[in-house]
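Subject: two folds for Thursday's group meeting

Dear M.,

Sorry for the delay on this. The cluster queue was jammed most of the week, so I only got both jobs back this morning. I'm pasting them in the order they finished. Each block is the input sequence followed by the predicted structure tokens. Could you check whether the formatting survives your parser before we put anything on slides? The first protein is the one we discussed after the seminar.
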Amino acid sequence: MKAYRPTTMARKGAVTAPHYLASQAGLKILQEGGNAIHAAIAIASTLGVVYPHMNGIGGDNFWLIYNAKNQELKGLNASGKSGIAADRDFYLNKGYQSIPERGYLAVNTVPGAVSGWREAYEYAEKSMDQHMEWSKLLEDAIDYAENGYPITDSQIRMAKGFMKQNVENTENNDFTSIFIDPLKKGIRDGTLFYQRDLANTLKTIAEDKGKSFYQGEIAGKMTAESAKEGGMLRIEDFMSHRADWVEPISVNYRGYTAFNLPPNTQGIASLSILNILNQFDLTQIKNTDPLYYHLIVEATKLSFRDRDKWVTDQQFSNTPIRKLLSNEYGKIQASNIHLDNTRELSTQLDPKGDTVWFGVVDKWGNAVSMIQSIYHEYGAGVVPSGTGVLLQNRGCFFSLEKDHVNRLEPRKRTFHTLNPAMLFDKNRPCLIYGTMGGEGQPQTQAALVTRIIDYNYTVQEAIEAPRWLYGRTWGVSSNTLKVENRIPSKVRKALEINGHKVETVEAFSDVMGHAGAILINKNNVKFAGSDPRSDGSALGY
């Protein structure tokens, strides 16, 4: 297929992010001598300002970091644990059968994003040869928060959608004044959007590397308001928080090695899909054949079945990762796929998951695949007074069922949909890739890898190609197979004949998430792509 946008090609460094201002912030750091980690922090902090409905310092992040100096791949889990007071009975005694999705009752985990930035920065300063002042990495974010940035139509549409679905959850004064009142005043795309309290918070973080966010005045403001509003986070929860280094997990795919992060992320599901598909020769199946879509959707269902059984905080469970990602198990799973009919997945998949993924490769060969989120759009819909920090509602994914693997318990990380990915050719990364989109992330990752590796798509072609999403639409109680209308009607009809409940959506639908990728060829040229479904861009130099 022919792409609408050109693939960005670069000799030195490349970045891709779902907002063009963040891409520019990252590229600037690379051009001024920073490495991939430095650029990633600049991108992450800027995205937290210019894409506030998707992510921010009130959320979590996860990293895959490749250090070219020592040829080491590391994973960083900067997701927050539940508070020491987190308790199932707290909610059950209030009459809840599930944790509320908005308000302070949805805020039961510590926001880990800032700790991820800081931990990655310290690693870069100690383990890489490039050095840059911490405060410089936050300059663009502070500028856009304090002096404004032109708001995009996508942010306005997301805010209107939030208002429509959450009328009763827009009572938090700071949240309303920052994000809702401008809509009521008729804000239009291109109007400057300000977050001055957030600018002050970012300035403090720039001065003390986030110490006050977890141990000082900012943490005090957040926990004081949580207590006032009946929430459960305490100052000791913030003080005890740490981002953790983790060992990436992997599977073989066509002679390449696909890497992702272990539980509590759903990285195991993303890899499991590839492990199952590795048992089929996709080159013998046209990428426009209904069988191509059928195989990936069925592999997704089998992977999600295991994911839902096992994935949670590994301090509270012991997921058999090696077995689930073994070639032998991949063969067993592949044998369970029927080519002429589909299976049902009893679990109702979560339609939410507004997130940002971005990637960076620098001129030294260092690479970062990173994802950052506040979970649902606008998270919990609360901003502690005077902080500008929009808090995540990731903790509402915990279960209140006593026997559920992801049940709410004190000091526990919940199941996370976030999972950044890399593909290695022998001992070096050749594809940095990922997407936002909740449970669509493993599905879109499979689309990117199969199209680039099996069908020789360019990076931009793979990102732009028609996509699908198996899952639930918000407000509906059953899963359907959503496909973009650019997938031919005869393919959709064939999928229906196979038993899929097909739902057609518009071309380049936001439902499909915002993907991105950077391909590195054997000559070290970077080929970067950005999703037209987002406000992003791929840049290089």
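Second protein, same layout:
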Amino acid sequence: MEILFKTFCHKGTKAQSQFLFYFTLSLSKCLLRWTGVKLATSVSFFSILFFLFSSLSYSQEKDTIKVHQIDEVLISAVRVNKKTPVTFSNLDKKEIATRNLGQDIPILMNFLPSVVTTSDAGNGFGYTGIRVRGSDATRVNVTINGIPYNDSESHGTFWVNMPDFASSVESLQLQRGVGTSTNGSGAFGASLNMLTDSYSKESSGEISNAFGSFNSRKHTVKFSSGLMNTEMNAAQGFELAGRLSNLKSDGYIDRASSDLKSYFLQGTFVGKTTLIKALAFGGTEKTYQSWNGIDAVTLNDDRTFNSAGIFTDEFGVTRFYDNETDNYQQDHYQLHWNEKIAANWSTNFAIHYTKGKGYYENYKEDADFSDYNLTPVATETSTDLIRQKWLDNDFFGTTFSANYKKDKLDFIFGGSWNKYQGDHFGKVIWARFASTSELGDRYYDDYANKTDATFFAKANYQVSNKISLFGDLQYRNVNYEANGVQADLVNDTFNFFNPKAGLNYDFAKNSTLYFSVAVANREPNRTDYESGNTKSEQLTDYELGWRFENEKLKFNSNIYYMAYKNQLILTGNLDDVGNPIRSNSEKSYRLGLEIDATVAFSKKVFLRPNVTLSANKNVDLNVLGTNVGNKQIAYSPSFIAGNIVVYKPLKEFTISLLSKFVGEQYMNNIESKEAKLNDYFVNDLNVSYEINPKSVFKSIVFNGLVNNILDKKYISNGYMYDVYPYYYPQAGINFLIGMNLNF
């Protein structure tokens, strides 16, 4: 295969390169049919783009101007480096690879500073969540190649819709606090930007398989054509690459099964001053619902019990509906055009489109006919029925930026315009007792439209050898229209101005001190409107940090103070469809100290500790008309620590011990005893061994992961039903084993 790719990609004619393109495209089609992913639109998308790229690639002339690496140009508008006074952590493909055995991206990020993760199914498959500095996922801005990923209405990130996306991530950066200006909803806890796979100069292929506890398995196939060019210039040409993945797991919780499929296709054109990247990626998911949690009594008797789908049949026998599932498909399309227009100027322009459609299905006992617009034919007023709640949405728009870099100045300006259109509707597909209404009719039919426009300008200026200044101005306009929420109709417009400023001071060799002040504003989400909380919220984030780096030690420490006005805090309660309910806290703050380091004791032993100490308080909070004083903000532990010990006895063999401690936290804002989640300390063992054969394969890599090796019984998340706590137990000791064949 490698010889074939090299022959056609680097020594062939234009016709041969086109043959290879269609050969790989046909192979992709076959594999897509095998996995069951519907991708007709993606195939057409790539067919059109190929002709665009091929016409460009054979008209380019050789040039000595260096083309920016795609990871520098593509998301330069939202990513930072150590010259920017922002607190951040990076995670690259190499660090992810040894643990990438099917678990979601939040689980792979678990050992970054101030991060707390959870899994509904208990083992990292299916629905997973992340909190940073006590802020939940709706307040963590997520972008993919600079394109917003957070759902426009809920502000949430649903990783289950992109299973195995980690296999197509080149690197990610987590900026804690407000960070720099980004696209999409404001960052109130952190911003996470991900860069997908860069292009490869040489052809390659990869087959990965993993198996483990709870019948978990992951099957992944990847390929790259390498840069195809007839002029023997390895630095220019067109590359086609892709991935197909199939993941399944029964989950730790009863019936918390996942059946996940995903794809990733990209075409990259590299010219003398041009980089063009076209992507189509997405996936389908079918997960048995496991978001109900369990009460304290059940937790002691049966930790894995799942009440979802429970009903009593006509004979009085307790049963579980076998299709109490969540079903969703999401497809993303992106086109990025990066151009170096002069020695000091580069630009990026992107257009994108996301299509999402799916439903979740419930068996409902003794449901009132009137609640579902059903008219009974007899005297019954209620019936058992099966309902589906649907979401059908479209998200599209553009992002753009220009970068001027010369001598002491690094200046970027740009913006984005994005539009969301969503339909919410419900259907009854079966009822025990007959009605005069037609099954399948919509018993509710709501809509939502949201427009989000952003403009920003930011700059780093090197005042002297030791001092650099940073400035960042952003204007954001948001319009949200929806029915089916508070007062049945919403039509709100928000205008936000978000300034940021800071400085870096290199006060000694290898040591940098930084300070920044950043303002962020956010609009309410759909659930906030439904709960009557319609005020926007504001955050002013102060960051003071110190960075030190030499050959054996990388050390980062920072103090942050995040002052909120009308912060929408989690109350611990859920609405009737499982969405977290929030309420405005007029005044609140988060004050903390973060420390992380990488210590090289020798060439074989590394240590990567991190710790967060924080105070997270509501000030004079009113709950149901009562002032409860200064209480801890819900889901905000005061102590979080992580550590990774890496031992490499051989170049090809790595053993890592990964540890995570999360302090006690509360599931409401009045610190009631019933709402307390106990602290927990969990350890994982990761092993990786690489073989480099002399023929056929470039490498064979064996990876093993033993999660929770001490078999700790712990709970990472929960909620309150009135005054009663409900919990999401996590799995005890479990394992995953994988093998990668690279050729």
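Two things I noticed about the second structure. The helical segments are 2-10, 14-35, 40-57, 70-73, 93-97, 105-108, 296-301, 526-530. The two ends are 8 Å apart (CA to CA).

Cheers,
T.
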